[in-house]
Structures are given as structure tokens and as C-alpha cells.
């Protein structure tokens, strides 16, 4: 057991204690209000800090009682700065006899992945190219400007309006895929501030949601992206659970059919719109709220003078409708068909690879997905600029081959089709369990 009551001249935590602890002792502190994590063999009491954590309280809670070293390294570009903030939270370290990894993780794999990250850092793969971000921003603004000029010059006829809607939806979607792929670099943080809120979303809401997804992808109760609000059952475990418990909110054996009417068309125009404003008001994100309102003001000032209020609202929702289709298909093609389960306490590499897959590289796939076709590299290195994923991919594949970790790559069409196939399979599992008395 740890010597928690011993005083020492070393750095002490807020309670004045510094001791040595076993994994068994650390793993007792996992509940809200009593949470410990381990980073680089040091034990931290984060029970109160979680409320002030810039990445949100839930992401730390997802690692309570665990070794969070790999996640800590993945999410923080400036580790030295973050370590300074962590000093007051330090309460001890692991006993010398304790392994560095918890839950029987493969220590050799963890060490080789750490070495790979250091190699990629030395190769400059984590450095931004500001010109890339500026050109991308210019690309989006150009599409928006062309859409407005088309209405100005050619009027509001059906054909012209359809072209305008496509251009606006494309600009929105490109903004979305850019934000999805870039979370914690200086250039991209500026981009998020400039583009997310003015596009009618909340940067704070999206960051906290997406950080959780990256921390524990496809893990029930930890990844918000697999919270299907009882509209769908996904993976192999949840359908059987629902079936055994006779839960039937919808006919899940037909979910691969009603997905087309519920998922792609409604996620952004209905669910996300409500959730975004509810979150901003609930958590007092007033700056985000002001920026979001500015988007609606800008849009209606530009388009009501041509379409009037009613048809401007129709156009707005039609653009959201098309954007939602892009968002659902592109974001889910690398996750829904993959393994979805409860917490298995895997190492960072194995956890990310079992929950993600890549899409073949091509100029179109790169542009259309905003480099979400490199989903594996994005999940392994969330702070790496997206223009460098192609450089990291061969090294990641080699490491996976060495340890027998499956590195999946699909065609774009195959990835889209796999969403439907996986939903159909999950629906069948639910029906079998539901009918089995």
C-alpha cells in the first residue's frame, strides 16, 4: 500500500501528502469527486481540477483510476507548460515494483509507439504550415462569395438557387471537415474561433464533445458519438443487450432502412441545432452564443433581401440538410462499422485502431473528406496538422504489422456501404436476442 501520510521535501499535492501507491490503490479513485490519474508514473489527484480543465471535465474522468500518459501526450502540444499546472495536483508516484502500464498492456508496444511519436516530432510532422490554413480559409470564403454573387447577378430562379445551395453546403462542409481534423494547434485554434461560431456552432461545445470521442473512441458511456438516443443499436454488444432486455424503442431490425430518413437528414438541422444552443445557454458560453447569433444575422441580412424571410429560412434549412448528409456519411464511415463496446482498457494504439479505419488516398478523397480518410493517424496524433498525415501513415502501418494490430483501409464506396451493412447486422443481432425467450 502507499505511504500516503508521509511528509516529504519533494513536490506535494494540495493536501500536503506525497506517497507511493499501487495500481490497486489508484484504481479505487474513479468516481466523481474522487478521481486520480497516473501520468508518467506520477499519481495526481484531479478531483477538483476536472471542473476547470480546458478540455472539459469528462475527458479526465474517462481516465480516472488509469494510466493517462498516452492520452496526456496526445492532447497537449506543450507538455512542459501543462506539467507546471499539474504540480499542485501531484500526490505521489507508483511504487517501484509496479509496472508503468496498467491492465496488462503490452509495455513493448507502448514504448515503440512513444518512440514513433518522438521520431515523427523530429521529422517535423507536428509543425504547422500557416499558408495551408490561409489557403483553406480563402477557399471557403471564395465559395461563400461566389454563392452570394450568383444571387446578386442571376436572381432567385430555381436552378440558380440550387447551385447557390450546393456552394453554401460545400463551404459549410469544408469548414466542418477542417474543424474535425484540427483541434489543438495554434493555427487551427484560430481557424476554429474564426469559423466554427460564425458558422452557427459553438467552439466550446464541439471541442468538449470531440475531445471525448478521441479519448475513448467507440466506447459506450464515454464516447458521445455512439450515444444513439435509442434510435439505433450499434456494434455487437449493445444490440444483444437491448434484445435480452426486450427494449424496442424502434424496430431495430429495420434500422439500416430508416437510417436514411433519420440519420443523415436530421442530425445537424434538428439534433445538433437544439443541442448547440442548449449547451451554450446551460454552460454560459456567451461569447460562443454571440458569435453564433452573428452567423444568423449575417446570413439573413445577405439573403432576405433577395428571397424574403420565408424563402431565406427554407434555403437555410435546405443547406443544413445537405451539410448534414455530408457530415454523417463522412464522420461515420470510419467508426460505425468498427468495434463498438464497453471499456476494455487497451493501450492507445490498440484502442484507436480497433475503433477506426482509413479510406484510400486520392486527390478527391483528400478534398472531400478533409483528410478524414487518414482517420487512424488523426486519432493517434490529434495535434498533428492534417497536411502531414500522409507522412505518418507508412510508419504507423509498419508498427501495426510488427505487433499484429489490424490496420484497415477501404475504398470510399466500401466505407459508405459498410455503414449500412453494420447497421443491418446489428439489427439482426437485436432481433435474434429479442425473439429468443
Helix amount, in percent?
55-70%
Query: Which segments are poorly predicted (pLDDT under 50) over 5 or more consecutive residues?
Result: 1-16, 181-198
Mean pLDDT: 87
Largest sheet strand order:
1-5-4-3-2
Domain count: 2
The secondary structure category is: mainly alpha
What is the chain-wise order of helices and strands?
EHEEEHHHEHHHHHHHHHEHHHEH
List the quaternary state of the chains.
single chain
Largest sheet, strands/sense/barrel: 5 strands, mixed
Distance between the termini: 48 Å
Secondary structure tally: strands: 7
Beta-strand content estimate: 5-15%
- H/I helix tally: 17
Please tell me what the overall shape is. globular
The Cα radius of gyration reads: 23 Å
Describe it for me?
The protein is mainly alpha-helical. It folds into 2 domains: 19-104, Flavocytochrome B2, Chain A, domain 1 (Roll), CATH 3.10.120.10; 106-437, no CATH class. The chain has helices at 23-26, 57-61, 69-75, 79-86, 107-122, 130-154, 158-181, 186-195, 203-215, 237-244, 255-282, 286-332, 348-355, 363-369, 375-380, 389-403, 412-435, and strands at residues 19-21, 30-31, 34-39, 42-45, 90-94, 358-359, 409-410. A 5-stranded mixed beta sheet has the order 1-5-4-3-2. β2 (30-31) and β3 (34-39) form a beta hairpin. α5 packs antiparallel against α16 (389-403), α6 (130-154) runs antiparallel to α7 (158-181) and α11 crosses α17 (412-435). It is globular, with a radius of gyration of 23 Å. It starts with 18 loop residues before the first strand and ends with a helix.
Amino acid at each position: 500500500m502507499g505511504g500516503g501520510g508521509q511528509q516529504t521535501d519533494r513536490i506535494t499535492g494540495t493536501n500536503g501528502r506525497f506517497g507511493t501507491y499501487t495500481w490497486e490503490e489508484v484504481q479505487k479513485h474513479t468516481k466523481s469527486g474522487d478521481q486520480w490519474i497516473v501520468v508518467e508514473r506520477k499519481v495526481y489527484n484531479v478531483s477538483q481540477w476536472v471542473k476547470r480543465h480546458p478540455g472539459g471535465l469528462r475527458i479526465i474522468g474517462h481516465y480516472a483510476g488509469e494510466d493517462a500518459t498516452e492520452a496526456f501526450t496526445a492532447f497537449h502540444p506543450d507538455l512542459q507548460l501543462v506539467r507546471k499546472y499539474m504540480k499542485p495536483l501531484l500526490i505521489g508516484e507508483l511504487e517501484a515494483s509496479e509496472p508503468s502500464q496498467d491492465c496488462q498492456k503490452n509495455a513493448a508496444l507502448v514504448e515503440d509507439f512513444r518512440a514513433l511519436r518522438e521520431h515523427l516530432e523530429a521529422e517535423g510532422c507536428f509543425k504547422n504550415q500557416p499558408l495551408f490554413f490561409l489557403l483553406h480559409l480563402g477557399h471557403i470564403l471564395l465559395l461563400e462569395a461566389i454563392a452570394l454573387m450568383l444571387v446578386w447577378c442571376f436572381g432567385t430562379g430555381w436552378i440558380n438557387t440550387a447551385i447557390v445551395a450546393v456552394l453554401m453546403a460545400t463551404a459549410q462542409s469544408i469548414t466542418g471537415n477542417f474543424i474535425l481534423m484540427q483541434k489543438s494547434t495554434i493555427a487551427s485554434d484560430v481557424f476554429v474561433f474564426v469559423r466554427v461560431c460564425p458558422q452557427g456552432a459553438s467552439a466550446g461545445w464541439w471541442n468538449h464533445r470531440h475531445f471525448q470521442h478521441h479519448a475513448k473512441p467507440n466506447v459506450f458511456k464515454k464516447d458521445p458519438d455512439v450515444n444513439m438516443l435509442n434510435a439505433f443499436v450499434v456494434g455487437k454488444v449493445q444490440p444483444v443487450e437491448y434484445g435480452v432486455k426486450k427494449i424496442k424503442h424502434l424496430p431495430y431490425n429495420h434500422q439500416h432502412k430508416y437510417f436514411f430518413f433519420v440519420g443523415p437528414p436530421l442530425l445537424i438541422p434538428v439534433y445538433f441545432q437544439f443541442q448547440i444552443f442548449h449547451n451554450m445557454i446551460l454552460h454560459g458560453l456567451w461569447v460562443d452564443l454571440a458569435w453564433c447569433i452573428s452567423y444568423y444575422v449575417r446570413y439573413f441580412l445577405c439573403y432576405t433581401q433577395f428571397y424574403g424571410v420565408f424563402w431565406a429560412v427554407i434555403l437555410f434549412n435546405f443547406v443544413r440538410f445537405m451539410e448534414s448528409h455530408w457530415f454523417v456519411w463522412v464522420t461515420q464511415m470510419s467508426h460505425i462499422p468498427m468495434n463498438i463496446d464497453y471499456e476494455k482498457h487497451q493501450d492507445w494504439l490498440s484502442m484507436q485502431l480497433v475503433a477506426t479505419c482509413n479510406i484510400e488516398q486520392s486527390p478527391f478523397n483528400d478534398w472531400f473528406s478533409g483528410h478524414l480518410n487518414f482517420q487512424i493517424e488523426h486519432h493517434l496524433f490529434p495535434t498533428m496538422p492534417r497536411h502531414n498525415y500522409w507522412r505518418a501513415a507508412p510508419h504507423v502501418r509498419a508498427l501495426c504489422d510488427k505487433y499484429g494490430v489490424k490496420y484497415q483501409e477501404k475504398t470510399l464506396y466500401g466505407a459508405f456501404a459498410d455503414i449500412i451493412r453494420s447497421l443491418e447486422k446489428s439489427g439482426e443481432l437485436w432481433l435474434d436476442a429479442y425473439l429468443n425467450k
